[in-house]
Design brief:
The complex is a heterotrimer of chains A (359), B (674) and C (281). Chain A is α/β, with parallel strands linked by helices and 359 residues long. Chain A has two domains: 3-64 and 87-208, no CATH class; 219-259 and 293-354, no CATH class. In chain A, 35% of the residues lie in helices and 19% in strands. Chain A has helices at residues 11-21, 98-112, 119-126, 148-151, 179-183, 195-209, 219-227, 233-240, 248-252, 298-310, 312-318, 328-332, 339-358; strands spanning 2-7, 24-30, 36-40, 68-75, 81-83, 85-86, 91-96, 128-133, 163-167, 171-176, 259-265, 270-277. The N and C termini of chain A lie far apart (54 Å). Helices cover 33% and strands 18% of the residues of chain B. In chain B, a hairpin with a 3-residue loop joins strand 23 (616-621) and strand 24 (625-632). Classes of the chains: A alpha/beta (359), B alpha/beta (674), C alpha/beta (281). The A-B interface holds A 31-35, 37, 39-40, 57-58, 62, 66-68, 241-242, 244-248, 251-252, 260, 262, 264-267, 276, 278-279, 282-284, 287, 291, 293, 298, 331-336 and B 1-3, 5, 18, 20, 27-28, 30-35, 40-44, 46-47, 50-51, 56-57, 172, 176-177, 179-180, 183-184, 187, 201, 204-205, 581-582, 585-586, 589, 592-593. Strand 6 (85-86) of chain A pairs antiparallel with strand 1 of chain C, so a sheet runs across the interface.
Chain lengths: 359, 674, 281
């Protein structure tokens, strides 16, 4: 691990350095009330880039997978002219949390791995520089619904960032996670750390780990129950009845990957083929032309979401549970069936039925 | 990239959302976590609202009808043509030949100016909103009984309610953010009572689900009142202090009988008792009902509100009557006087003193007799018919319950203001493209009386102005001399016209998440729930409703009862939905499977008759017959056939009139396989 | 804006050569790639693979590849079911459209060497099996007995009849047809497709046989039931699944059922796999 130390007072200098190096720098900003959002760092707001801020509700996934992205531009003629291009500026995100860093890593394994590599995703990702900020302020950084400790993604990411910044009080400990990240250490704002800095890091993390709040998600008994098919239909029905089919859990999820593709008219002979985020909660998700819908009922669709995220086969295939513990699905859900709640319902009902079977 | 806090434009909940934009494009939409109403939740429509304004199908130039088609014209020519034609038709046929209808989706500012144009410039009270009479029943009843035609309490308070009655509205599909509130309240211990002929999503969670026969609501609420009285659950102190008609009410209630009601409604008597006790015994119980296309007749609404008055569930948090509006600004357009018989603030046009005030404010003599409602303007032909109609964002060809095309075709002037070329626009003489959601700063008023700013996230396409400005331009071309520079200035005048909006200036609305009216000089922060200090110098009025006659038993040869009208599948026709790929897909699923429409039959009946999804059936009633496809639906009770709102052919063939649609006159049919 | 190298979503331009009407609403479209290199690369497809067909300005849909790679022609056989397939049906020879692929796993033809092949198809379920069947006939000496049991609603609904008759005469395979409803011209068997198994004179070997089943869900369920009763093992029954798909390359998620992305892990699955996928039938 390559690490350096910098004065907290140089935070702005680091931001400016990144602004010089990249086409755009994105950071979370505090909005009204609890609302925070990722936005471009500009001359006007550069001094307001926070070190501690509640994690924005709308995840940074859209910088690698935009909600709507043009795949093709089509000009109809006797010979159609098809153009494909991607708008992928060189971009740094400053202040991405450890859970979201893990989310992007999960997307990497999905979109860049397996037999086919998604060129659009790859273009965004190659140009993306991640400055992870460790959640060290329990009052600001960690809210009731965070459960990264259960997902093993936080409070401090171990990898998948270019730089990791941790608040030690007056100083910031900066860890490089990539060659490009490490190259920044040539900047004079950085100096070598001491063993005392590392000890301080350990102490802070040990303390933060005791400050997590309400949400917990004990995946593994649920992984087992789902994988072995031990979850009763009535349990999925109970969960499904609480789904109001808004799609929010997928749109907000840092690891959800599904999209739909559609053609939109731009002019008399011009079209674009776009992909749009999609959600398995929606009734039309699996509908085929001609009408046969293998997953008509809402509870089947909920089953689908959690099967996809928690079946052991997929965990092995993608090397992790498709959940990073950010808690957004808890906050977005009308029916209180975010990941931790479903894990708990499945865990409890399967334990109860196993108990009943023994008795 | 910019993030603009705004109000969602789909339903009446008024969720706070952010629009994310880059340059001229809306790139995303997501909920505000801090907005008190939705607190981080929105429905599938809200998640895709950004696609609507960015749609490539937008109209960009005014269109003027030619012999065969339309031609693009300049704004001067289009607006000048409208003013000129309006003046000519007025001169020839009189003011009563002119009419305006606003969509319940438009802003307060455009609704206010459109009705002002009609009344103060064109001299007519032919003014209405697109839902017409459906909604206006509820307004009359609420004004009469409570004095205020709106939801009394706030949506967030539902989390504190001890019991909630959800009556005749599929919250999960129509108003999901409220549906979620109710569902989460139920999960935390609130008693949930669902009253509906259809077993919809929330019914699955109900402590008591009353799947009653259509048209039997009044009997049910009367019987519940009887239980409440018999068990001593009535709030005598409240009745004594705040209500009138108490004696008369208690007298008629004794004529009700639970066993009789159970028989009439087709539900177990124990369930009626359980529902009444759960509602009456709670510390603060709320009633939710729809005022949209599925609204019931006056008696049913009166009988519901009786329950709230009887138990003192008015004037405290977590209680109240929620007259839900399914359109983002239905409450607002009504507040703005978009009604044939009422000025802004619900002042009757026949009230001389009230009218005088508006004549002073607007500087013009005003018509004294109520005008035609939307239903009349869109249906009446020959004598008394309107000759010129101005439709602001309204699309009656797709949205109205009756076929409006005949009337539209015969008009001398049809002005259509809309962001898109709608089905209705095909009949227009002039089409005025307007700024869309996200392109103008205006206000909506939600179903909880929350007056909210709708933010401007992007500029409209070049040349497009807000609809309110076009209305003002035409008024000025007719010599009105209006001087509004901004929407905020229109709002300032609204504050003078509508007392409840007195302090709801833009500056005040910006500070938090809008203000709930009354927002007045002494209550600048607005009012979370009404009647904290009683009925405000008057008394609430109980409605003694005599025990209704037993609805006719289905004749042996017509064993099925039709249930009309829920707007369950309404959204698929909505022009906003048409411009989002995801929404189009979601709201058209059933139409793809049943391209010629369908009626829903219970699983039990389907099995008995041998019907499967898509089986062709003929419905035969006394008024006529219709052929359609069957859809087997577990939501429907045996003996009932559900006819979706959009299935106009079936409604017209069998329903006969609007009374049937509103469930007041049951329609009996038999069902045959074709 | 920058180019997208190796773009998995970019279709190649194809030119429609001719159209043959098969049955009502079903046509066969013969085509070739504008770019000969694309043609050569595509021709390495395996029986059972599929392609994504683009009608520009309308959309894209997955279509199985009915020809065997041993055939000279490329063609799709497509039923008109939605807006995109309807747009394909409206094309004329010479019109251009787009094709991406081939995608999916295909049939592991080598695994079937030395085995008897039993094809059971219902209606348009013959389309995805045609490639495998013709491939086996073109490599006739590698396989044992080859039988096709094919049923449809009526004579008018039986597909590829000309080719089937021709192959039956010349290439050493048994073809048994049946219809649900007979008309005047029909002299053959009437009944569901599995009723053919027990017809006098028909012997269906069970040992060392792989069965290929494709057809509507109801037919699929009954045929599987009968095959299992006859002694077929789950892993010796093979089918090809069809699902709503947007990308064809395992990314969009629409075809993900149970443990598999049908496009990337399938569309060919053994019945043993299908049973464990969950939520398929």
């Amino acid at each position: 691990m390559r690490a350096r130390v910098m004065d907290k007072a140089h935070w702005l200098a680091l931001i400016d350095r990144l602004r010089a190096d990249f086409d755009e720098v994105i950071a979370p900003f505090a909005g009204r009330g609890r609302d925070t959002y990722f936005d471009r760092v500009t001359d006007a707001n550069r001094a307001r880039v926070p070190l501690h801020v509640p994690n924005p509700y709308y995840p940074p996934k859209r910088y690698v997978l935009p909600p709507i992205e043009r795949l093709l531009q089509i000009h109809l003629n006797s010979t159609p002219r098809i153009q494909a291009a991607v708008d992928a500026p060189r971009r740094a995100i400053v202040g991405i949390r450890s859970c979201d860093t893990a989310g992007i890593d999960h997307l990497d394994r999905f979109y860049l791995g397996r037999d086919f590599r998604d060129g659009y995703y790859a273009a965004h990702r190659q140009n993306l520089f991640l400055v992870n900020v460790v959640c060290t302020d329990p009052e600001v950084d960690i809210d009731d619904d965070c459960f990264c400790m259960c997902a093993d993604t936080g409070p401090a990411a171990r990898e998948h960032f270019d730089l990791q910044v941790m608040d030690l009080g007056d100083e910031l400990l900066v860890v490089a996670g990539s060659v490009t990240g490490e190259a920044l250490f040539a900047d004079p704002i950085f100096r070598k750390g001491t063993p005392a800095h590392l000890a301080r890091r350990r102490d802070i993390l040990a303390h933060v780990r005791t400050r997590f709040k309400v949400s917990t998600s004990w995946y593994w008994s649920t992984v087992k129950a789902i994988t072995l098919g031990e979850v009763a239909d009535s349990t999925w029905e109970r969960i499904g009845n609480r789904c109001l089919e808004c799609g929010g859990c997928s749109y907000m999820c840092p690891t959800c990957t599904c999209f739909t593709v559609t053609e939109r008219r731009l002019g008399p002979d011009d079209f674009e083929r776009v992909r749009i985020w999609d959600a398995c909660a929606l009734g039309g998700f699996t509908r085929m032309a001609g009408g046969f819908n293998p997953r008509r009922a809402a509870h089947d669709r909920r089953n689908r979401r959690f099967f996809r995220k928690l079946a052991h086969y997929f965990i092995q295939r993608e090397l992790s549970v498709a959940c990073v513990g950010c808690g957004r699905c808890v906050e977005v859900c009308h029916g209180d069936i975010g990941m931790p709640q479903v894990v708990e319902i499945v865990r409890r009902t399967t334990a109860e039925s196993a108990h009943a079977a023994r008795a | 990239m910019a993030h603009t806090l705004t109000t969602c434009t789909f339903c009446g909940v008024g969720c706070g959302i952010y629009l994310e934009s880059a340059g001229r494009t809306l790139t995303g939409a997501y909920p505000s976590m801090s907005h008190p109403t939705n607190q981080g939740r929105i429905c599938v429509r809200g998640w895709h609202v950004n696609e609507v304004a960015s749609s490539p199908d937008r109209l960009l130039r005014p269109l003027l009808r030619t012999d065969k088609d339309f031609r693009e014209v300049s704004w001067d020519e289009a607006l000048g043509y409208v003013a000129d034609r309006l003046a000519r038709i007025q001169a020839k046929s009189g003011s009563s030949a002119l009419g305006v209808i606003a969509s319940p989706r438009g802003s307060n500012e455009e609704a206010y100016l459109l009705q002002k144009l009609a009344r103060a410039v064109l001299g007519t009270n032919n003014v209405d909103h697109g839902l017409g009479a459906y909604r206006n029943h509820s307004i009359d009843v609420l004004l009469d009984m409570l004095g205020v035609p709106a939801t009394t309490n706030s949506i967030p308070e539902l989390s504190e309610s001890s019991a909630i009655i959800v009556n005749g509205v599929d919250l999960g599909l129509q108003l999901p953010t409220i549906g979620g509130r109710v569902l989460r309240a139920k999960l935390r211990g609130t008693k949930l009572i669902v009253i509906d002929p259809r077993r919809h999503r929330l019914a699955e969670h109900a402590d008591v689900f009353l799947q009653l026969r259509p048209g039997s609501d009044t009997a049910l609420y009367g019987a519940m009142a009887k239980v409440i009285v018999d068990r001593g659950l009535l709030d005598l102190a409240f009745l004594k202090a705040h209500c009138r008609n108490v004696e008369a009410f208690l007298e008629v209630v004794h004529a009700y009988d639970v066993l009789w009601a159970a028989d009439v409604c087709g539900v177990p008597p124990e369930a009626i008792e359980a529902a009444a006790i759960a509602y009456g015994a709670g510390a603060a119980s709320a009633i939710l009902f729809s005022t949209g296309v599925e609204a019931y007749g006056n008696h049913a609404i009166q009988a519901l509100i009786n329950l709230a008055l009887l138990t003192g569930n008015i004037g405290k948090p977590g209680a109240g009557v929620f007259a839900l509006t399914e359109h983002n600004n239905l409450q607002g357009v009504c507040d703005m006087g978009m009604l044939p018989n009422r000025f802004p603030g619900y002042v009757p046009v026949t009230d001389e003193a009230g009218r005088k005030q508006f004549e002073v404010l607007w500087g013009a003599p005003l018509p004294t007799r109520p005008g035609q409602g939307a239903d009349q303007m869109l249906a009446r032909r020959g004598h008394g018919a309107v000759r010129a109609l101005w439709l602001c964002r309204h699309d009656p060809v797709m949205a109205a319950s009756a076929d409006a095309t005949e009337v539209l075709r015969q008009l001398d002037l049809l002005v259509v203001q809309h962001p898109f070329f709608t089905e209705t626009a095909k009949f227009a003489h002039v089409v005025l493209p307007v700024a869309a959601f996200g392109e103008e700063q205006v206000t909506f008023t939600s179903t909880e009386r929350r007056i909210q700013l709708v933010g401007k996230a992007v500029d409209p396409p070049p040349g497009l102005a807000p609809a309110w400005r076009q209305i003002a331009d035409v008024a000025n071309a007719l010599g009105a001399g209006w001087e509004y520079l901004t929407a905020a200035e229109v709002m300032k005048e609204i504050g003078r016209a509508v007392p409840a909006y007195a302090s709801a200036g833009y500056e005040n609305l910006t500070r938090e998440y809008g203000r709930q009216w009354p927002c007045t000089g002494d209550k600048p922060l607005g009012t979370r729930y009404l009647f904290e200090e009683g009925a405000g110098g008057r008394r609430f009025s109980l409605a003694p409703i005599p025990r209704p006659a037993r609805p006719p038993v289905p004749p042996l040869d017509f064993p099925f009862t039709l249930v009309f009208g829920h707007s369950l599948y309404y959204w698929h026709q909505n022009v906003l939905v048409q411009h989002s790929e995801t929404l189009k897909r979601e709201y058209q699923i059933l139409l793809l499977d049943f391209p010629e429409g369908f009626v829903e039959v219970s699983v039990e009946d389907a099995k008995r008759i041998g019907l499967r999804d898509g089986t062709k059936v003929r419905l035969v009633g006394t008024a006529g017959s219709a052929v359609t496809a069957a859809r087997v639906a577990p939501e429907v009770k045996p003996g009932m056939i559900f006819v979706p709102f959009f299935h106009r052919e079936v409604r017209e063939a069998l329903g006969g009139n609007g009374a049937a649609e509103n469930g007041r006159v049951p329609v009996h049919v038999r069902l045959e396989r074709v | 804006m920058q180019p997208v190298p190796d773009n998995i979503y970019l279709p190649q331009i194809a030119i429609l050569d001719r159209v043959v009407e098969e049955i009502a609403e079903v046509k066969t479209f013969y085509w070739h790639f504008e770019d000969p290199e694309a043609q050569a690369a595509f021709k390495r497809f395996l029986p059972g693979q599929f392609a994504q067909v683009s009608i520009f300005g309308v959309g894209e849909f997955p279509a199985s590849l009915p020809p065997s790679p041993t055939e000279a022609d490329l063609f799709f056989t497509v039923r008109k079911v939605g807006s995109v397939t309807a747009a394909l049906h409206a094309l004329n020879p010479g019109d251009r459209f787009g094709v991406r692929g081939p995608y999916g796993n295909g049939f592991p033809m080598r695994d079937y060497s030395g085995r008897n092949l039993l094809f059971v198809a219902g209606g348009i379920g013959l389309i995805p099996l045609r490639s495998c069947l013709n491939y086996a006939l073109d490599n006739r000496d590698r396989y044992g007995m080859i039988q096709l049991f094919y049923g449809a609603r009526g004579l008018k609904d039986l597909m590829y009849l000309g080719a089937l008759r021709e192959w039956e005469m010349a290439r050493g395979f048994e073809c048994h047809l049946t219809v649900d409803r007979a008309d005047d011209q029909w002299t053959g068997n009437v009944g569901v497709v599995s009723s053919l198994f027990k017809k006098p004179g028909v012997t269906v070997p069970v040992a060392n046989t792989t069965a290929f089943v494709c057809g509507p869900p109801i037919m699929f369920r009954f045929v599987i039931r009968d095959l299992i009763e006859m002694g077929f093992k789950d892993q010796d029954i093979v089918s090809t699944l069809e699902r709503y798909m947007k990308c064809g390359v395992g990314k969009c998620g629409h075809c993900c059922i149970g443990l598999a992305y049908v496009c990337a892990d399938g569309p060919v699955f053994t019945y043993g796999q299908i049973k464990h996928l969950g939520e398929v039938i």
